[in-house]
Amino acid sequence: MVTRRAGIAVLVVGVLLLPGAAPAETARTFKVSASIASGCAVTVDGTGAWGRIDLGTANGATGATLEAGVTDGVQLACTPGTVATVSADAGEHARAGVPQLAHAGDGASLIPYHLFVNGGTTPWEGQSIALTFPPGTSRLSLPVRARATVPRPARAGRYADVVRITVRW
Question: Where does the signal sequence lie (predicted)?
């Protein structure tokens, strides 16, 4: 038994002393990267709409001016450094470029209205509003208001319109 142990010890020492044997390299590097594209997203309400303005109720016999706004405005989130434009069309029932609320019963009875954005006094429809998201800023709220002039007499009932808001970046 003693002879066998000495033979194994010599074999192990011999393998460790072979000329040209080098340790294997076990560490390398690899690159990790990502590209972030400029982009924007719009926060929507539970119905998928970007907002809703309810002008309330007016007496159709006396006429009135009604005004209201979107509670939280249009909520935009964009990549910092992005410049976006937001525009509104004149709605589905526009006449000569002026938005109109159409009566739900016949669609022929109309009430003119205008949208105003960001505290402006110039009607928004047909214009683009430029928004800048400087570094450190990624969310903006765009307050939108509507003003309707109810003629007298006005047919009783529900009036509505749908406006398309477009965000470009």
Answer: 1-24
Residue 55 lies in a domain: yes
Report the C-alpha gap between 139 and 142 in whole angstroms: 10
We report the CATH number of the domain holding residue 113 as 2.60.40.1090
Q: Which value, to the nearest 10 degrees, does the dihedral of the CA atoms of residues 24, 29, 30, 33 take?
A: 170
pLDDT, tens digit, for every residue of 13-44? 555 555 666 677 788 899 999 999 989 998 87
Say if residues 40 and 77 touch (Cβ distance below 8 Å): yes
Domain that holds residue 127: 37-168
Tell me the one-letter amino acid at 72.
D
DSSP labels, 143-167: -EEEEEEE-SS---S-EE----EEE
pLDDT tens-digit series, residues 101-127: 999 988 899 999 999 998 889 999 888
Residue 129: inside a domain: yes
